[in-house]
Write a structure and sequence with these properties.
It is a single chain. This protein is of the alpha/beta class and 432 residues long. It has two domains: 224 residues, Alpha-Beta Complex (Spore Coat Polysaccharide Biosynthesis Protein SpsA, Chain A), CATH 3.90.550.10; 180 residues, Hexapeptide repeat proteins (UDP N-Acetylglucosamine Acyltransferase, domain 1), CATH 2.160.10. The chain is built from eight helices and 40 strands. β4, α2 and β5 form a beta-alpha-beta unit. α6 packs across α7. It is globular. It starts with a strand and ends in a 13-residue tail after the last strand. Its EC number is 2.3.1.157, 2.7.7.23.
C-alpha cells in the first residue's frame, strides 16, 4: 500500500540547543541554507508524501508563518498544537484523526537523514504486509540508545532502553516509523513510564506482545544524525554541503577584481564579492551579502542572507545566520553565529584547546563530552560583541547579550547579559 501521509513531531523546546533556540524553534534552525524542517518536508515530497501534519508547540507561530499551508513547498500542511508535553505516545496520538484509516509515516523532527532512507522504508512497507515498520541504525555504544531486538525473521521482539552492553545487539531506534491504526490502540493501552510520560516505545511493545508484525529496517548504510546538540548541527551542515556536486552562482553576483573561487560553491542573488576575497568550496553564501575585501571563506561554511564578512575576516566550517556581520579582522571557526549578530573588530572564536584534548560543553548545567577536537562558539540572536573579544572553545553567548571590548569568554554567558572586563586604573602623568 502506498503511503501519502506523514506526521512530523516538531513541538519540543530544544533546550540542549540553547542559545540557538532562545528566539526560534529548533525546526527553523538553518542548516546548509534551509531550516532543518524544510529539508525533511522536501524529502517527504520527493517520496510522494504530500499530506503532512506538523505537531507543533514551542514558537509554533513562527513555524506556521514560515511553512503556511505548504503550497510553496509542493505539499499540503496542517497543524496541531501539543499543549501538554506528556511523551512521544501522547504526541503521536494527536495524529489519529489525520491518519484516519490510512497508514502513515511518523518522523521525529529533530533529525536529518538521507532521502534514500525514506525511499527504502516506504518501498519495504508498500511491497509487504506488515502491521508496522521501525527504522534502525547500528550504534557502537548501545548503552546510550533504545535498542531493537529482532527475531529470526527480522521482526521486532523487544525494545530495550539503554541496555548495559550489546547483549541485545547494536541496532538502535532511528526514529522513523510507519504505522496503521493499530498504533492508536497501543497508545490507548499505554501507561505512564517511570519518568512520568507516555512512551511510544511502550505502545509499540504492546502491539508486539499481541503478535503484531513490526518490521525492523536497517538504515545503517545511509547518513542519519539526530540534531540534538549544537555540534550535530555543524556535522549535518558539513554532510549536506559535502553532497553538493555543482556550482549555483546567481547571475546577479558581482565580483570585483582578483576574487578567487575554488571548489563547488552556491552564491545567492545580489551578493557582492569584493577584491581580494578567497572562497574555497564547498560552501554556501546567501543573497544580498557583501563579502570582503580580502575575506577568506573556507570549506563547509554556510553564510546566510544579508550578511557582511568584512576586510581580512576568516570563516571556517561555520554557520553564519541571516543579517549578521563579521566586519573585519575576525576569525570564526567551527561555530554557529545567530541572526542579527554583530562581531566587533578582532573577534576570535578559539576552536582548539591548548592541550589538543577533546572539547566539552556545558549544557543544561551538565558538562557534555562532544568528542570534537575542534569546536568554536555558539552565539544567540541579536548579540553584540565588542572589539578584540576572545571566545574560548565550546562556549555559548546568549541572545541579546552585549560583550565589552577586550573580554575573554571562558564560561557560558546567559541571555540578556552585559559582560565586560573592567580595565585597571590608568594614571596619566605629564612629561617634565
Amino acid at each position: 500500500m502506498k503511503i501519502s501521509k506523514g506526521c512530523i513531531l516538531a513541538a519540543g523546546k530544544g533546550t540542549r540547543l540553547l542559545p540557538l533556540t532562545e528566539t526560534k524553534p529548533k525546526p527553523l534552525i538553518p542548516i546548509a541554507g534551509k531550516p532543518l524542517l524544510q529539508h525533511s518536508i522536501e524529502m517527504f515530497r520527493e517520496n510522494n508524501i504530500t499530506k503532512i501534519l506538523l505537531i507543533v508547540g514551542h514558537y509554533k507561530e513562527k513555524i506556521e508563518e514560515f511553512f503556511g499551508n505548504g503550497a510553496d513547498f509542493g505539499v499540503e500542511i496542517s497543524y496541531i498544537e501539543q499543549k501538554e508535553f506528556l511523551g512521544t505516545a501522547h504526541a503521536t496520538n494527536l495524529a489519529k484523526n489525520f491518519a484516519d484509516q490510512d497508514p502513515f509515516l511518523l518522523f521525529y523532527g529533530d533529525q536529518y537523514m538521507d532521502s534514500r532512507i525514506f525511499e527504502k522504508i516506504l518501498d519495504e512497507f508498500s511491497t509487504n504486509t506488515y502491521d508496522g515498520l521501525i527504522s534502525a541504525k547500528y550504534m557502537e555504544d548501545p548503552e546510550k540508545w533504545g535498542i531493537l531486538k529482532s527475531n529470526k525473521e527480522g521482526f521486532l521482539e523487544n525494545l530495550i532502553e539503554k541496555p548495559p552492553d550489546n547483549r541485545y545487539g547494536n541496532l538502535a531506534n532511528a526514529g522513523v516509523y510507519i504505522f496503521n491504526q493499530d498504533i492508536f490502540e497501543g497508545i490507548a493501552n499505554t501507561e505512564k513510564s517511570l519518568r512520568g510520560e507516555y512512551e511510544l516505545t511502550d505502545s509499540i511493545q504492546y502491539l508486539v506482545d499481541r503478535n503484531k508484525k513490526i518490521k525492523i529496517v536497517d538504515i545503517s548504510n545511509y547518513y542519519w544524525n539526530g540534531v540534538g546538540y549544537p555540534w550535530q548541527i555543524l556535522e549535518t551542515n558539513h554532510h549536506i554541503i559535502s553532497e553538493m556536486n555543482t556550482d549555483l552562482i546567481h547571475s546577479s553576483v558581482v565580483e570585483e577584481g582578483s576574487v578567487t573561487i575554488k571548489g563547488i560553491v552556491e552564491i545567492g542573488e545580489n551578493t557582492l564579492l569584493k577584491a581580494g576575497t578567497y572562497i574555497e568550496g564547498p560552501l554556501i553564501i546567501g543573497k544580498n551579502c557583501v563579502i570582503g575585501p580580502n575575506a577568506y571563506l573556507r570549506p563547509y561554511s554556510t553564510i546566510g542572507d544579508n550578511c557582511k564578512i568584512g576586510n581580512s575576516s576568516e570563516i571556517k566550517a561555520s554557520i553564519i545566520m541571516n543579517h549578521t556581520a563579521v566586519p573585519h579582522l575576525s576569525y570564526v571557526g567551527d561555530s554557529i553565529i545567530g541572526e542579527h549578530v554583530n562581531l566587533g573588530c578582532g573577534t576570535v572564536t578559539a576552536n582548539v584547546r591548548l592541550d589538543k584534548k577533546n572539547i566539552s560543553m556545558e549544557l543544561k548545567g551538565n558538562l557534555i563530552e562532544t568528542h570534537k577536537r575542534k569546536l568554536g562558539a555558539f552565539i544567540g540572536d541579536y548579540a553584540s560583541i565588542g572589539i578584540n573579544v576572545n571566545i574560548m572553545p565550546g562556549k555559548c553567548i546568549g541572545s541579546y547579550c552585549e560583550i565589552g571590548s577586550n573580554t575573554i569568554i571562558s564560561k557560558n554567558v546567559p541571555a540578556n547579559s552585559l559582560l565586560f572586563t573592567k580595565p585597571k586604573q590608568q594614571q596619566i602623568l605629564r612629561k617634565k
